[in-house]
Amino acid sequence: MDVPSFELTGRVAIVTGGGTGIGKAIAFGLAGAGASVVICGRRFKTCESTLRQIQEKTGAKGMAYQCNISKKTDVETMVNDVFGSLGRIDILVNNAGVTSDYPFLELPEEEWDRVISINLKGSFLCSQAVGRIMARSKQGVIVNIGSQLGEVARPNKAHYVSSKGGVKMLTKALAVELAPYGIRVNNVAPGPVDTDLAAPVLSDPRLRSEVIGRLPIGRIGKPSEIVGAVIFLASDAASFITGVTLYVDGGYVAI
Fold this sequence. Notes:
Number of helices: 8
Largest sheet: 7 strands, parallel
Number of domains: 1
Number of strands: 7
Shape: globular
Strand order of the largest sheet: 3-2-1-4-5-6-7
Strand content: 5-15%
Order of helices and strands: EHEHEHEHEHEHHHE
CATH class: Alpha Beta
């Protein structure tokens, strides 16, 4: 019996929001597993710096690309340029995301639109553009980065939990529609992780203690602890898995 392989040598992966936080850790992990990695984000210098660090450590090939994933023209240009330069796209990780805190009755429409546009619409646009290329080659993997807050709610997060709940259902819809093209689609849902995105909550000692108190594992996660789930789902070891949400959340949703 063959042992499933986590090897990604020869594959090309796009990681949105790959310059910092969880996205940066994922990009490093994919490169370490053998993939060529495209770091996509709004800040080109940040993406370029991360790519340089990855290349110095792993020797992996790759690209840095500035892109606003909430804009269709930006996404289509990015995907076409990556395919034209590297000749294939095997893996898409929809990681880019934003958040903020507002009581629902005070939530501005423009903030609702901003969070939904990046977290949910961005995943849709990138998956559609990359999916069309993957469909032609009859293979590919899309890994969405959702959140435990796509399953449970917290106060002041109506826009964020709506976006991540949408990502969870988008994952299922794409898994069903794209399976005939050989494309698998799954969702990794991190719990509380020490990143700049989570800093407004986790830097407050009272709120940090409250969050830790909800976690059976008793601590906040690290970006590196999300990487293994993504590599697994992107690899042939997960060849019979599609449409699932894998919670990497320290037990948050178990309670």
